[in-house]
Amino acid sequence: MGAFVLRAVISGILVAIIALVSRRSPGLGGLIASIPLVSTLGMIWLWNDSGDRELVANYVSAAFWYFLPTLPMFLLIPWMLRSGVSFWLSLGAGCGLTIILYLGMVALLPRIGINVSL
Length: 118
Known about the structure:
This protein is mainly α. The chain has helices at residues 2-24, 26-34, 37-50, 53-67, 73-82, 87-111. The model has no long low-confidence stretch (mean pLDDT 91).
C-alpha cells in the first residue's frame, strides 16, 4: 500500500507542477504536459513490479496506439474556445471526440493485426 501512495503522490505532484507552471507560461506548461510523464512513470512502476520485458513492451505499444486518438482533442478544444464556446462545453466535446476515437481505435487495431488487448 505504501508503494501505491508514493506513486500517487509523485504523479499528483507532477500534475500540480504543470498547473503552476502553466499559470505563468502556458507554452512551457504545455511543453511539460506533452512529455509523456505519466506513460514513463507507468513504465517504471510496471518494470519495478514485474521485471517483465514483454509486459513493458506491450504496455508501451498500447500506450502509443491509444495516444493517437487523443491528438484531435488538442486541436478541437482551442478552436472551440477561440470561437467563443464555453470552457466546459469545449472540454466535453474534446473528451467526447476522444472517446469516440478510442472506440474506433479499439475496433480498428485487431482488423489490421495489432493486438492491444484490453
